[in-house]
Amino acid sequence: MNFSEQISELLKKIYHEKLVARIAVDKFIRNLNINSKQRKEILDFIYDCIRFIGFVKNHDFKITKEQLDEIKNNLILDESSFVNILGFNEEISKLILDSIPIDDFSLFLERAPLTIRANMIKTTREKLLIEFENKFKKYKTITTQFSPYGLTVDSHINVRVMEKFKKGFFEIQDEASQLITFLLPIIPGNNILDICAGTGGKSLAIASHFYNSINIEAFDIDKNRLQKLAKRSKIADAKIKIIKKPKTNFYDAVLIDAPCSGLGTLRRDVDLNIRTTPRSLKKVLNLQRTIFNKAVESAKNGGYIIYVTCSFLKEENEKQVEYFLENHKNIKLINISNILTDNHFNTFIHNQFFKTSPKINGMDSFFGAVFQKTH
Ligand SMILES: C[S@@+](CC[C@H](N)C(=O)[O-])C[C@H]1O[C@@H](n2cnc3c(N)ncnc32)[C@H](O)[C@@H]1O
């Protein structure tokens, strides 16, 4: 099999078997005997093929870079190109078009910036900036505009091999994700439950933001992820307690970083066009409702529930909020403008909610709503 045939086979597999592209592509590229420049070119090509999988599939997964460039440069976004060129499911395409302005969507077809978050328990952003500037003179490192902890780093820099990364001085984290810490109406000494803690992205950010002054309890259904969280928090010196079962009527705040379609991170998870189906969406919608019930139970009276998704779909956001309010008579919605009181954050306040998008400083698309348990 020649090289283009191998890529074609890989794309077919990713499409038909709904493989997680990142894992399948990593495995594929690892077995090739190529230099780093070739590696980058091939990766860019494969990921672009996945972004435009509808078109690639219609060409029996055999496509040249020139064909791909032509379609990219002449793309007109409408309902038909969502299905035929981008390869989204028809129903999902409609939901996307109903959720965000069509012109904004083109930004999701670009590469996301590489952003890191300074771990304030161990360092400061300023110190890290100096380190990056001295170490990588030919690349530009810039401070993020909204998160006081972020640096946008040139994607050629392999931050994972850096000693400071291995020792927990910084984490790789999108700016929008870093900002979630500002949605928490809590003060030092409070108890917070991170009910979907996963490998700890948000818990670590909270510990850093509050300089370890909050009692953070981390829960997740996936024990493997929690094991990773345990390792990361040790390295980061972050005070996070992993728990087997959340307490009832106890926490000052419960953060739900909900399992979701993830469409707001489409620039990184480019295969979501293939993997997002009405069925997968229904599954996460149900899960979000179940977890919300648990979160309300866990919060104390007067405590807060912070619901976050990395999706822009109304179904997972505004419509889900309506559902929560209808089904829980003991909660009220808090206008996010009462929490994000610093004018600096005005741009993220949409109606009563927190919203980010690649339009603002190249961030992922996040949604946040805050509720208070009244009784
Ligand atoms: C968006 S991810 C969380 C990411 C994590 N908070 C971070 O910042 O790295 C959603 C998480 O919800 C977890 N999850 C799914 N169903 C759950 C449930 N019923 N209860 C608690 N966690 C659940 C998944 O295992 C996954 O780790």
Automatic annotation (TrEMBL):
Keywords attached to this entry: Methyltransferase, RNA-binding, S-adenosyl-L-methionine, Transferase
Active site, UniProt feature: C310
The organism's place on the tree of life at top rank: Bacteria
Positions annotated to bind S-adenosyl-L-methionine: D220, D257
SUPFAM superfamilies in the cross-refs: S-adenosyl-L-methionine-dependent methyltransferases
SAM-dependent MTase RsmB/NOP-type domain mapped to chain residues: 104-374
Gene Ontology terms: biological process: maturation of LSU-rRNA; rRNA base methylation
MF term (GO), any: rRNA (cytosine-C5-)-methyltransferase activity
Protein name: SAM-dependent MTase RsmB/NOP-type domain-containing protein
